[in-house]
């Protein structure tokens, strides 16, 4: 039997409880899940790649419900190339709202043209996390708002330290 390997890519700047919820659900659907932390300087992340990798690894190590082995790997190449390097059969994408759908629809179409053998699987964010984004988290934190409900305590500490 072939192992089903899935990829959940993102910038994770920072990782949120919404991301962790998608990771938990994706881990039920594959034999191994690879969290791909994108090295995407064009997005001008608040945290550098090593900091984001550390936050993701810490949060996954502290997750209660993992249904398969989960590995955290950075990548800076085309997602489809990264998926092939990892022997992935699918890419997980989280959808929060219809605004996410437009972008994801276009990206999925292009990825399918480049690699028709790698499926894209969309997981809808639960209603509890539909409005949570890393961008909102950073903005609220910068303005001294309470984000403790949306990130883990370790991420909260790193955000507070970064924005002092």
Q: What's this entry about, in short?
A:
The chain has 164 residues and is α/β, with parallel strands linked by helices. It contains 6 helices and 5 strands; from the N terminus they run E-H-E-H-E-H-E-H-E-H-H.
Give a verbal description of the structure.
With 164 residues, the protein is of the alpha/beta class. It has a single domain, classed as Rossmann fold. The protein has a 5-stranded parallel β-sheet with strand order 3-2-1-4-5, with helices on both faces. The termini are far apart. The mean pLDDT is 91.
Could you name the key traits of this structure?
Rossmann fold, 5-stranded parallel sheet, alpha/beta, 6 helices, 40% helix, 164 residues
- Look at the structure and give the CATH class: Alpha Beta
Helices and strands, in order, run as: EHEHEHEHEHH
Which ranges are low-confidence, i.e. pLDDT below 50, for 5 or more consecutive residues? none
Q: What name is given to the CATH topology? A: Rossmann fold
Cα-atom radius of gyration: 15 Å
């Amino acid at each position: 039997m072939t192992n089903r390997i899935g990829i959940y890519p993102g910038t994770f700047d920072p990782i949120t409880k919404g991301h962790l919820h998608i990771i938990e659900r994706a881990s039920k659907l594959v034999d191994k899940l690879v969290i791909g932390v994108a090295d995407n300087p064009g997005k001008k992340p608040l945290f550098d790649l090593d900091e984001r990798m550390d936050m993701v690894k810490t949060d996954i190590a502290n997750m209660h419900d993992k249904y398969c082995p989960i590995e955290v790997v950075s990548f800076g190449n085309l997602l489809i190339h990264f998926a092939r390097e990892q022997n992935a059969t699918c890419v997980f994408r989280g959808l929060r709202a219809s605004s996410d759908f437009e972008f994801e629809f276009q990206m999925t179409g292009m990825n399918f043209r480049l690699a028709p053998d790698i499926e894209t699987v969309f997981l809808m964010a639960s209603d509890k996390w539909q409005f949570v984004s890393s961008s909102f988290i950073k903005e609220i934190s910068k303005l001294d708002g309470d984000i403790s409900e949306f990130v883990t305590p370790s991420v909260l500490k790193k955000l507070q330290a970064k924005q002092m």
